[in-house]
Amino acid sequence: MLLLLQMKESSQVIQLAKTNLSLYLFVAYKSSSLSPLASELKTEIDRITRLINDHPFPDEPLQPTLLRHIPPVSLSPSFVESVLGRLFAAHSNGLKALEFFKYSIHHSQLTPSVDAFEKTLHILTRMRYFDKAWELMIEMRHTHPSLLSLKSMSIMLAKIAKFQSYENTLEAFKKMETEVFVWRNFNTDEFNVLLRAFCLQREMKEAKSVFQKMHSRFSPNIKTMNILLLGFKESGNVTAMELFYHELLRRGFRPNSMTYNIRIDTYCKKGFFGDALRLLEEMEQVHCLPTLETITTLIHGAGLARNTPKARQLFDEIPKRNLQHDIGTYNAMIGSLIRSADINSAIELMDEMQRKQIEHDGVTYHTMFLGMMKFSGIEGVCELYHKMTERNFIPRTRTVVMLMKFFCENQDLDLGLNLWDYLVQKGHCPHSHALDLLVTGLCSRGRLQEAFQCCKQILERGRHMSESVYRMMQRFLKQYDEMDKLMELNRMIMKLQSVLPPSGGKAIGCTC
């Protein structure tokens, strides 16, 4: 039995014996132009992702479907990681992702990867399935303790800090110590994870409180101080960040490249590009070598300052610093060109990336679409959109929402539907914000049947629709005497509400 699986190494063939079957894993090198092997693998991952996303939920169990379509012998760690990665990007229902992960554990003789577990945990916590997430972590403690890492702890605590209270987050940290990571002696690394959870949410009052309460138990290191410094930076308070930087110095810590990068980024985003350049000079004077992140941040800052020549100089100097251009540096330079209205040079950089086999990512497309919308209009956007879909690239949620808004505002609902169908065919469940925009546009043009189908597709994939969209559909379906369709939506919503937590606390009431 042949199965084509993509991994990061150069092409190799691995033979595994399982129950009288020989499984050959052909490994394709990842490049901008996919080899036939990698292309076939991608097609298989698309198929399985679509199968899971399209499965009627929660009307039918998923496990029998997985058993029919995914032979256990094909469940390599890299294949499971790839499918879960697609489910995460596709905003798939968390319970479906959990079922697939459990299927891979129970039907494969290979140990699941840390990455697969972390993706599953991320999908669950993003949808606030905290009970399921705790159950999974405790189950892994008993069966696969090697999967429990600082990153999995960080994923859980960050989402609890985002959606629950300060006290809940501290209780979760204690539960991690006493019930999940029972073999670990909690120290500074774990303390840093807790601080980072609050700093990610810009809850600096809470972060400072935790620091004051616990720093005597957990000795802070420079990473601790950088996490707090980053939190002050994200809060947008330059003064508070600088005050904490001086506290860092008073405590005897020596700034490293990350410390400088955080401060440089703050000054760039606040429009103090000259101060950021002076920090670069200071780094070099104290023999703290600038990293690729440092230069990328400065290129971005030069773009914000509309100083394209300086951005280009920094970009061109990268090889002279014994560094190599990567996707981040190209994206920063493209952003700088877009801000100076040099759309043609930005397009040339995209072409250069392809020649150097640096793949365009979500940031590349988002930045270019912003430029096209501003300087090229609907024609430029459409041209880039068709290129993106021809390359089978799936944009990130913010880009999907931005494109949907642009198409609907330009009264090009067919393109909006085309984008919707493209995502669904790729196994994605479009975000509810995209649904809001599309349904509003369709209903305002009297295209009620198409709006109804989009709503059904969201619900069939196990995701909530917003209350505003429901009320709009309710009003239009009643107006056009389509009560059977309204009853169908109500049935699907009530079924979902029996198993799903409310989306953002906005449960939908179903009244005919």
Automatic annotation (TrEMBL):
<dbReference type="Pfam" id="PF13041">
    <property type="entry name" value="PPR_2"/>
</dbReference>
<dbReference type="InterPro" id="IPR011990">
    <property type="entry name" value="TPR-like_helical_dom_sf"/>
</dbReference>
<protein>
    <submittedName>
        <fullName>Pentatricopeptide repeat-containing protein At3g61360</fullName>
    </submittedName>
</protein>
<keyword id="KW-0677">Repeat</keyword>
<comment type="similarity">
    <text>Belongs to the PPR family. P subfamily.</text>
</comment>
<feature type="repeat" description="PPR">
    <location>
        <begin position="326"/>
        <end position="360"/>
    </location>
</feature>
<feature type="repeat" description="PPR">
    <location>
        <begin position="187"/>
        <end position="217"/>
    </location>
</feature>
<dbReference type="InterPro" id="IPR002885">
    <property type="entry name" value="PPR_rpt"/>
</dbReference>
<feature type="repeat" description="PPR">
    <location>
        <begin position="221"/>
        <end position="255"/>
    </location>
</feature>
<dbReference type="Pfam" id="PF01535">
    <property type="entry name" value="PPR"/>
</dbReference>
<feature type="repeat" description="PPR">
    <location>
        <begin position="361"/>
        <end position="395"/>
    </location>
</feature>
<feature type="repeat" description="PPR">
    <location>
        <begin position="256"/>
        <end position="290"/>
    </location>
</feature>
